[in-house]
Amino acid sequence: MIIYQSSWNIYEPAVESEFFNNLKLYINVIQMPLFISISGYLYYFYIFEKKKQENLTSFTWKKIKRLLFPYGIVSLIYFIPIRMILGFDGYQGSGAIKAVLMVSGIGHLWYLVMLFNVSIIAYALVKYIKNDRSIIIIALLVFFISSGNPSKFEIKRTLFYIIFFMIGYYLRKYRHANLNMKQNIRLFIMHIILSVAFIIYINTIGSNFTIVGKLLFIFANTVGLISYYGLSTNSIENSKISNTINSKLFKTIDRNSLGIYLFHEPIIFIIYSFIGSKSIYPIFLVLVCLILSSSISIVITECSRKMKFYALIGEGK
Known about the structure:
mainly alpha, 12 helices, about 0% strand, globular
């Protein structure tokens, strides 16, 4: 639905959608903190519950294979070539190599580099500082001094988002302190109110990186993440939802989740280059992009797995 966001300047849809534009404004508030917090949540699960503790060298190498290998390979043999075919500039000559090395102009793939950085820093914080309060204070301090803007090697966004990795980490660590359904719903309502206040604020002043903007952002997302995780835990107790999680479709998506992320964006660009200029109902175009980009990404991931091209999909042995 990003294609209907007014700030997206890659393609201009023939039919505008105020609904999807406003919905994407909200999603922009929660999506990155949510994704990163899931990584922190799973980090605690694997390290401390599955007892898969590793030294820094082993941990770093595993993250290189999981995140940086796919980043470099997908950028060079998939993302950039498709962009060049579709008429994007900036990749001629040594431009492609520079884009990959500087983490510039590589679309959604910047997230992999940032997540790698965050994972290594989080490992060091947990291993060497250990005190929960000190770790949160450090993560908050770097959040407030960082801009969250794109930068070389994604250093600024690393500092900006590491607090959300740690929030996910502590949500798993202290999961037994879960709130009940009513309390989580109240928190979710508070999250929506704070998110709307943040959106109004940044639309008024034109920047979300002031102190006030950061305070609104951190409060909205902290409350939101607690409520999202709490509501998820409450909902899993429902047998119908539990059955859905154990369904074949859900397991297929789960197994290929990284591949879906790696391959989906260029597919959306290709779809949009063919039908985006036509007068199509927004909901139809969104569904076409969602279904086709996810399905094709899963096929590419499964084919890579069958051909044992594990480095491409972050499953290097």
